[in-house]
Amino acid sequence: MSSAISATSETAVKRPKLINLLFPSVITGLVLGVAGAALCGWLVNMVTTSISPDQVPNDDAVTAAVYTAWVLFFFIGIGAFNGIFKWGFGRKEPSEAEEMQLAGKDQGVWRYFRYTTDHKVVGMQYLVTVFVLFFLGSMGAFMIRLEQSVPGAIFFNPETYNTIVGMHGMIMIASTIVMVSGPFGNFILPIMIGARDMAFPRLNALSYWLLFAAIPVFFSTLALGGFPTGWTGYAPLSVQELTPGMDAYCFLILIFATSTTIAAMNIVTTVMVMRTKGMTWGRLPIFVWGVVFSVILSLTAFPSFIVSQMMVLMDRIYNTSFFLAASGGSNWLYEHLFWFMGHPEVYVIALPSMAIAAELTAVFARKPIFGYRLMVSSMVGISVLSVLVWGHHLYTSGSENALGGPYMLDTELISIPTGLFFLAIVGTLWRGRIWVTVPMLFIGGMLVNFVIGGVTGIYMADLPTDEILHGGMFVTAHFHFTLVGAMVFGFMAGLYYWFPKMTGKRLNARLGILHFWLFQIGFLGTFLSLFYAGLQGEPRWSANVALPYANANLVASLFAILIAASVFTLAYNVIHSWLRGETADANEWGAKTLEWAVPTPVPLENFEGELPVITSLPYNYGEPLPDLPSTPAPEIDITAVVIETPMQPQGED
Amino acid sequence: MDTSLEHSHEHTHGLEPHVKAARARAGILMLILSDALSVLAIFAAGGYLSALNTENAFKIAGDFAPALTPGILIAVGMAVSGLLYFWWERTVRSSEGNGTTILFVLAWIVMLAAGVAETWLGASLKYGTPISAYESMLLLITWSTAIHLLLTAVIGLLVFGRILNNRVRIDGLTFVAEATGYWWYYTVIAGLLLWAFGVFFA
């Protein structure tokens, strides 16, 4: 393989450089996508006007045509169909040189703007996209807090406020779903299992560019009247809502869910068939397990969501009645289909973040993971139970009252494997010589926040208390503690940990510590205040704060300033470190998983020469590294350790 | 905790053939799993709305199902296409090559015809608006089946291209025919189940 890489005569780009750069690329994708969307929109407008008895176009059909054409022509323009066409009608299999060119060889920064198949390029594309989306979502959150800082309307009318809340929710949910499996699942995971790339490199590029194509669809809602339903898109409001912004919401879900499904099948297949010799299921790093369970859950959960949005679109365009009671439909159908995705989706987000925490705890406690098999079993338990608990979101809907008890039971059962997982993390920390780094700070914050989020979740799971708290600020505070306080903190730990490997630059540790404390203090202050507001009885979906809840909301908004400061600190740290930061070591943390055994920057095919052979779990830290607390660990040759150390009974501690 | 796939899978130019085969099988099975769950969601939605019968309006007087005869013909067509594909796949395996191409061509033509017929069926359903929940389900089932059949016809066209260029066999293995077959058979089974569900509804 390596000899093939070095055969530059084979891999040389033969076409003129300018044409090679521009076609196919994101530029041609955008041009063709916009042109195709405009043309199809015009055509469907003409057709629907001509067949309508009143000579009025079907706005929903026009919007649907525009978005369908946008996606189709964007992918033609970016060259996504070239590989499919060659697969079917090419005279021979792609040569090594063609594969290397598709992987971005010798294309510099421009490879990030093309349909590049290299998993590291896709990982970086996801990372930058997640950063941008998080930043925009955070700005939405600050606008919400600003509006809610004092009673009465300040800046926004209720419709604008609803749109901002909906967009904030949608951006954040989408971002958190891909925040780990996108950047780290693509960049790090294949190296961790000893693979040279993902199982389906072209599908990998497709999954990212689908996400990219969904972004303009999402922001077009601003020009189309927004989607006042919030991120859940509840029917029948979504069907009765006249603005085409709701069509944009449905298309966003369809595109995003397709992207996630493709990414999931790719990741699962990669781990199933691309592991290097000796990388048995029992020797997979815990992070890999977390990502695999997460994407299996998304494979299972997202189809019902896709079907629900197809039904909404049919209701809007063709006047069908899936969700209209007067014609035999039911809003409960939407709620079931939505929450069958919606609750497992929480664990789609949670599992990889929890796995990051477990992975990094072993590295920074310089100890083998405590209860490896227990952790894997916990994730199995969480995955199975998470698809059985969606009904607790319908406690107060009037649907399936008889099932309230069973749903309450299995919702509470899920806390057992979750608790065991976090107990195992604490077990790993126990008597370890803990190296307090920025990633470790975030893991500490995650543990604190998850306890609060988990304990308050019990009140949501119990039907009697949920009857009181449902629809209030208490719920908002609870899910922010789990999704942000726990899961985003886990992502941040992973970011500070893997950033040096992904970019070759070290994030500034002082700014990282500042980022952590601003975030943690701001987060606790904001959402503990909202717990109080919720206990006072403040409803979630109110544009204006009522007088009894004014103090709690003012405190929450003041603490949110600290979160805002933490976001800007992180943004500055990332940009500054990426451009001018210190060069990172190949093994920045003295860790033993395979991604730290390859050079930085990581070569195109990850491993120079033969693939490694694995004989044990990567957590055989015999003793703490010397002088760790103040300085980064020196680079050590861990390849030999990984390859030659006999297998130890890691899972039986 | 050991599997047969845990091996060094390097080849002179890329992956070893049996890893490519395993990859193709696993990828298609993941796709089928995901799609099967969406079909299951359609069944669940239909069953749920039927059981709820909100306002006693799920199915009202005047609601009608698509004509039975075209549906039977399409169902037979799907089954025949599946059998022809199966036969072709067997000849591919036994001959370690392209097999009897005419069998594949017939399977593809029948699949395409079934897809076109299902599309015609969906387009010719002139339901008055607002369309009741019962008729909404039938529309969804019809269009879902049509999309599945047409997608499979497109995949068949790509495979036909490979047959013409003698590329069904890769590195001595015929996993392209096998993995495509998984999807082909799944489409037939899902299409028949959706049709049976529609008939049951009627």
Descriptive account of the structure:
The complex is a heterodimer of chains A (653) and B (202). By secondary structure, chain A is mostly helical. Chain A has 25 helices and no strands. The model of chain A is unreliable at 1-13 and 626-653 (pLDDT under 50). Chain B is mainly α and 202 residues long. Chain B has a domain at 68-202. Chain B has a two-stranded antiparallel sheet with strand order 1-2. Chain B starts with 9 loop residues before the first strand and ends with a helix. The interface between A and B is large, with 64 and 60 residues.
* Average pLDDT number of chain B: 90
The dominant shape of chain A is globular
Most extensive interface between two protein chains, with residue counts? A-B, 64 and 60 residues
* Unreliable residue stretches of chain A: 1-13, 626-653
Structural topology:
The complex is a heterodimer of chains A (653) and B (202).
Chain A: H1 2-5, H2 8-11, H3 17-22, H4 26-51, H5 59-78, H6 80-89, H7 96-102, H8 119-147, H9 158-178, H10 183-187, H11 189-192, H12 201-219, H13 237-240, H14 245-273, H15 286-318, H16 331-365, H17 372-386, H18 404-413, H19 415-429, H20 438-461, H21 463-469, H22 473-503, H23 509-536, H24 550-580, H25 638-644
Helix pairs in contact in A: 4-5, 5-12, 8-9, 8-12, 8-24, 12-14, 14-15, 15-16, 15-17, 16-17, 16-19, 16-20, 16-22, 17-19, 20-22, 20-23, 22-23, 23-24
Chain B: E1 10-11, E2 14-15, H1 17-52, H2 68-95, H3 101-123, H4 133-164, H5 175-201
Helix pairs in contact in B: 1-4, 1-5, 2-3, 2-5, 3-4, 4-5
